[in-house]
Amino acid sequence: MKKIANILRTTGLMVVLGLGLCITSCTDFLTIYPPNSTTHDDYWHTEDDVNGMLAEAYRQLISSSAMSRYYIWGEVRADNLVNSDNAAEEYKYIVEAYLTEKNSFCDWSIFYAAINAANMVIEFAPLVPERDPDFSQGDLNVVMGEMYALRALCHFYLVRTFRDIPLSYVASVTDANLPEYPQVHPMVALDSIMSDLNRAEPLVMESGAFPTTNDDYNTCRITRNAVRAMKADVALWQAAFAKYYAQQTEDDTDGEVSDGEVTENEGAADDTVTEGEGLTKADVADDEVSSGGETPSAPVTFKSPDEYYNICIENCRLIIEDMAELMEEKHNYALESNPIMGPGSENPYYLVSNIELGKEEDKDVLVSPAYDRIFGLGASEETIFELEFDGDINSNGTVFSMFGSGSGGNFYVPESFVTLYEADDWRRSTFITPESEGEGDNAANGAVEASVLKFVVRASGPKEETDNKTAREYQNNSECDANWIMYRKTDVMLMWAEAISLLTSPSTEQLDKAFDLVYYVNDRSSLNGSKLTKVGQSGLNDLVLDERARELAFEGKRWFDLVRKALRENGPEGIRDKISQKSSTSGNTIKNRMNHVNNLFFPISERERNVNTLLKQNPAYESSESIELH
User: Fold this and answer.
1) Position with higher pLDDT, 96 vs 260
2) I need a labelling partner for 604 at 20 to 30 A (CA). Which of 103, 111, 219, 586 fits?
3) Measured between alpha carbons, how far is 498 from 545 in angstroms, rounded to an integer?
4) What is the pTM of this model?
5) In whole angstroms, what is the distance from residue 423 CA to residue 446 CA?
6) Under DSSP, is residue 486 helix (H, G, I), strand (E, B) or coil?
């Protein structure tokens, strides 16, 4: 049951091969673009032309370049991964917080390639309804909505990783019209991202609304709940940055905070906001960015953190309620007779059950229906948006380069992270191979440390009753069809709980709701029932953060969760303490290199700054020692 492969076969390949629409290998800033023919009279005439570029935008997101960055940017610097001895030198530098502008993972061009493909659709697709009667205004709206959201998602990855980024809202077709964009304040970027998502929400397909013939599209293409999940995520970052910059402003003004307004260089740590002109949400919404890349000057404004948290809460509520309705409509059952969750389940959130665990006489059986549905088969009842790999045209070999197959990858899991799981938490044995267990393609090498199973394993237990009860079904490196999950239900549940935990004065009812959301995620994964006990508001956020670490491990979330926490706390002390625990040999070195919030963001690539003279380096790396990589 694979999804976007159909789009790629029928449209992407047609575009790449039949129409000659290809992407160059150049890695300079915004120099990945389709050829001039895409704007000539022989293109943008039919629905197929639009779908071809739509597929091209999605194709960028599943490229090996993008996939490796989901891991490197979202996980590797966190407390849940350490590099192996055979890892590339670049990986070791990232793990040890020894980053320079020469590191290839500072290259952001693949995300601007996807943004540019989206911009092409947004700019030229509106020409097609007049030329192709089979392509209606309704069809156009759906495509436009997806591209607004995809553009927002790419900008969102960039602002979380680099903080001060350029925003691209103009289609670049040739070098002649390739503009140099200035960086903007992260609050401006997040406002602009939210503006794109607000535009996308009413246009995209309602979740579950794609016809049954294209049922897989409901999880591999951006639908309404996917947009809402992005909005909830963005709102959490808006709140974190708003709190951080408000604290910086307070420090600069001896306790006198301005009314939610920060000028271009005011309120940023060490004047890190670049001198590039700002961009307001209204400017972007009205498409007022000039083709020359100049942007109107504006102050940076922000709301109170509580206002952002309430935006997150509302979007999460809408998603969970809509997903419950979809489950009831699709399966036509009540909670008490739920075949997905198991008979008699008291979990009100329609989570896929692990009912088989603990019900077998032999507790060594590793079968996890939840793992197999979500990470094995894909397109599960809990998926909101995921990127598809079919193991044929598109193979997700990135997971093998990162984690190996039971052993032998570039990264392993430190014991300090493994201990976050209770011994009877099924995620401990289905997400991670215990130390020295060693199995799969590289079993002969022996697993000397705990290694990652998530995405690497297709099925969590034996295929036949006669098989070894501890055997797992591993993916094949060259035919891996493990999908990459951007957002799923438990992620949204925990974002909802996080937002409640951070409100200034949440009600008792809200606090109870937040605990329930965390409890039911945890309870689903415990063989003997959740051991979580209620805590007050002061401990609730740590409870949420730990559960996100357990549930979403190795899904590109952990580092971003920690950075968001550091911003709220106005410093990296908390994140440094967690990360230093993962290595007895380099822990203190890593801790010392993360002595400022600036160090939590990547440097701007040397190549990009040579191409775009408006780019300013993150101050943490302005005088960093150059490292020759070999």
Assistant:
1) 96
2) 586
3) 8
4) 0.86
5) 23
6) strand
